[in-house]
Write a structure and sequence with these properties.
alpha/beta, elongated, nine-stranded mixed beta sheet, 2-enoyl-CoA Hydratase, Chain A, domain 1, 9 strands
Length: about 270
């Protein structure tokens, strides 16, 4: 079921408790903070009659907008099916970008006064090697079918029309992020022209901006807000065999997509 992290001796199967789900590190497919892992934990927590509330303990700088979006959607779906269970997000060291994207699905967000919160923006980065390969006497040879198949190739001169098009893709993703934050936080957000610029704030500043509801730890939320000190860890950790099969299953696909994704995939950061 889960691991009792409160030090209580009673059986967690028969005692009311608060479910803790850790979202640590980069949010990405195949990572500990993947949508598959987090959603598995969420479904277990919501299906337990002994769970009085769910705390998402977030320590993440962001990552894939797709994975963060899957998690956000599932939190909202489970909340609609289980309105009696309140969901809290507690940001520890950092809950930025994709981490904050997930947090806004919670009913309330808490952070430490020194936590890093926000970074509501999208980034995509790469390098250009055109001058380098010319100086080294290397000739670039690329053959494509389709005018834009070599789109944003780092070994070819950057084209203005491609750059402008890619900016529209990033802007679309950014607008999606903004809508999710506005829907999740509603009128708690302070009207500020800096809110959605990608800046990141301390927990104290985030509280003033309406990005969080209060300052406090997971223990504080469980004890003072839920009224139950017993916390049980529902974080899903795949077994070594699951990890092995996952690696085998995606190895070929990763090799094929590496050149396409490693330089240009949008990230919520």
């Amino acid at each position: 079921m889960g691991r009792d992290i409160s030090g209580a001796k009673e059986s967690v199967d028969r005692q009311p408790h608060v479910a803790i789900i850790d979202i640590r590190g980069v949010i990405a497919d195949g990572a500990d903070a993947s949508a598959d892992n987090v959603i598995t934990a969420l479904r277990k927590a919501f299906s337990s009659r002994q769970v009085e509330a769910v705390i998402l303990r977030i320590n993440s700088p962001g990552g894939s907008p797709v994975q963060a979006g899957y998690i956000n959607d599932e939190i909202n779906r489970l909340k609609s099916l289980n309105p009696e269970k309140t969901v809290y997000a507690v940001i520890t060291d950092i809950g930025a970008s994709g981490g904050y994207y997930i947090a806004v699905a919670a009913d309330q967000i808490y952070a430490d006064k020194a936590s890093l919160v926000g970074s509501i923006g999208v980034t995509s980065s790469s390098f250009g090697f055109v001058d380098l390969i010319e100086r080294m006497g290397i000739e670039r040879r690329i053959m494509t079918s389709g005018d834009n198949k070599a789109f944003l190739d780092p070994f070819s001169p950057q084209k203005e029309d491609e750059t402008e098009f890619w900016k529209t893709v990033l802007n679309t993703t950014h607008q999606q992020f903004i809508r999710v934050v506005q829907e999740g936080r509603g009128d708690r957000l302070v009207d500020s022209d800096k809110l959605f610029t990608g800046l990141i704030w301390s927990g104290e500043q985030a509280l003033e901006l309406g990005l969080v509801d209060g300052l406090g730890s997971s223990s504080y939320v469980a004890r003072e807000l839920v009224g139950i000190e017993r916390m049980v860890d529902y974080t899903h950790t795949p077994s070594p065999f699951d990890r092995l099969f996952d690696r085998l299953g995606v190895h070929i696909a990763k090799q094929i997509t590496a050149q396409l994704s490693q330089h240009w995939a949008p990230e919520l950061r």
